[in-house]
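Write out this protein's structure.
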Amino acid sequence: MSLKQQASQGSEVNERLAALVTNSNAVRAIASAVEGTLGPKGLDTMLVDRFGEVVITNDGVTILSMMEANHPAAKMVINIAKSQQEEIGDGTTTATVMAGTLVSSGVDQVAKGVPVARVIEGLKIGLHRAQEAIKEKSLPIREVSDPRIRQVALVAGREHQDIANLVVEAASLVGKDKLKDNFFKLADTILAEEGAENHVFMGVILGKERMNSQMPRQLENAKVLVIDDALQPEEIGEEALGTERGFARYLELQEEFRSSIQKIIDLDVKLVLVDRGVDDTAEELLTDAGIMVLQRVSNKEIRSAAEHSGARAIKRTGLKKPPEELKQYIGYADKVKSEGKLEQVWVMGGGGKPMATVLVGAATAEVVGERSRIAKDAAASVQAAVRGGIVPGGGSLELYTAREVEKVREETKGMTAFGVDCVVEALKRPVSQIVSNAGFNPLEKIANVNVAQVEQNNVSLAVNCDSGELADMYELGVVDPALVKIHALKAAGEIAEAILRIDTIIKMREEDKKSDLHFED
């Protein structure tokens, strides 16, 4: 073959790999942005916007969500990380780092001549075995009181003792059954406030103050009414109001409205939560009756308050119902108090479903967001541990799993085996970065861990990031939820397969806007 023919062939290969290489570089850049945060010695990232506003965080999904990323492949990785956060609540950094390794390793194999289809086939085989291996080694959590639950919260909460204690207390309050409910997220109970004291209680916090200072600040044994509407008279159009009949209808509606307000008073309701605005007349009458009223309560908060108090949300037209029927819509709370400094109202000891709230205090506004993110990670990990059990952390299980996948590689025929190799590399990548972030040589330490795990038949051995010595992760209290690792592998595999399948990148044309033009003579 002549030099010209070789050059031509090389050019064709480069063109064929152009899309893969471009996408791989974008994914690798995204992974590089977060991998420095991995592990107990991981560092923070500073994000700065064009106005000079600064966010300092160690949270992977926050970094990914807030960073500027224009490349389509980079956006795909960010979206899969957000999906991981939505599904499990933690593990986004691990998923991103593994996705970066799967893609880059896959591209390397394709560059060597392995067909993309074979690489993807190998990825699926390796990832399936990896997830199985993690499930096999997971230990179930029988009770929320299990002391290992606190260790999960401590690891996910980046060693913040106070946050771990708050999250564990909240988990104990809601109970195991509630934590296993797929529609319940313990992380949603977290609220961080500047100047607040750390606190956990059975109840909900409403981010609104009472309508005026003459309303009571505190209520005991309070009946609760939730109005999913405006507490105002029905309206009449201006044209109708200008007629005698329309004005008569207006007076009738005003009287009906006052009658509805009187029913609320007569039913001895003490707390009224309103989705929208409240009429001045209603405010005056309810204030005189010693009733606390909150208006324009967010939809999420009003649903939580209704669920916790046992109240059934009602429309304003429903207030026309007879008092006996209205009683069925009323909820109950042991205590309601207004926290004027925080501009909140706490509804505690509801007569409906048990709901815990975790109030995380922060000294300054700058750390409120980060304290909230840390607590939410800890809460999500605790819930995942209850749902799917725990495994040893520190990268110990990933190294064991990599050896298990290598066994599958030996049984895999043809070029598909090269795709399995990519999974092995991806499993080693997070622990390699954790060790590197701690200041040790990852090649040396990983080799030592592999030898020790095999010799001692102990898969929970890994590197103590403080001393650099080998240690049992269970004995150190370094434990992770199995579901976090399983879903991180799944997410990484999905994005790697999607990106490796992209053969060509074509820029879409701009939409033709000529149809919007108007021509005049």
